[in-house]
């Protein structure tokens, strides 16, 4: 290690220790964020909808929309990819409130059903779909209902289960699964060195790891919220650099599960791109046209005209924005189609690559982890389109933003292919087989990126 690297590691270790020493300050910061979050969530609900002449800097509702969907959502994803889950451990208002409730709550044991690994996938799908059906990016009421409901559930779970823990964040939070996956490419983590973990003398000291990470055996950083409370613990844990994505190739990626593959393939590479682009999609229009004609042929008028309350389907007559049953079914069909296509397009090459390498299931899920850079870049740049469109509405143009987004997705695809090739080397040393397995997955990976760049 060079002296510069040693200095950088020492600096990082010092920052980790600073987080540990400044827990009181972090708690105060969290309360400040909770206050801002509550104000931006609740106040726009009682204000009139913004007019076309309102700007982000002149209208609180537009400002809140920009903060939630133009800044918070895309840039938390970016930050998680760059530095890990600091957002979760230090800044997230929901996590802070859940832990606060848990400190004073009933402290019951966590029920078995809550530990089911499928919850992060199911809750992310349901909130994404519900958000699109109710136009959460455009209107304050669905935002308050979905985000406020999630916060309420986080507090309720905290008040009932665990003692000073973040049970909600660990098992049920709708975005926890995505954050965990994206954080695997971060070059920062709390490194644990079990070999230098000294045997406890007397009563063992304890660390309150709120998201219930088994600290001594922690693999990677997917579950770690980077709160810093274990920094320096027994001289065996410190904040440290690591090679970006090394966790995917040699760390927790080796123990990847089917649920993580499900989050990557049908959800992050299928459902999410469709959910972020459906309103301008030719496929959506084609499905809708077909359904409209089918309803007219059958003389069924109610799917074309029935209005449902805003908390079920978008319903804002004053803004001429109403989602009919036909619109909703078309949207759901598009999302399901996109998820199915992504599963098939990536799933078959993955299964074939795993078969070429070893004919076992484990390499397939491990190989699927190589798609994390592509899925993360596609998610971030897709969400960034919300930022760009909101700024454009206010006359702020970002001329090269679209080119940069495309370049990022293409670069991430190349990175994914390179990671795939590295992973193949762990299962088979024969170059020909490795090349064939890599090429099989490279085909949908690069096709996805080129398609994304062409049509986004
Ligand atoms: S392992 Fe737990 S205590 Fe340590 S930094 Fe991560 S979340 Fe905090």
TrEMBL record:
Regions crossing the membrane: 31-51, 71-92, 113-133, 139-159, 261-278, 332-357, 369-388, 408-428, 435-455
Pfam families per record: Fer4_5
Domain 4Fe-4S ferredoxin-type: from-to ranges: 67-103, 164-186
InterPro entries reported for this sequence: 4Fe4S_Fe-S-bd
Keywords: Membrane, Transmembrane, Transmembrane helix
Name listed for the protein in its UniProt record: 4Fe-4S ferredoxin-type domain-containing protein
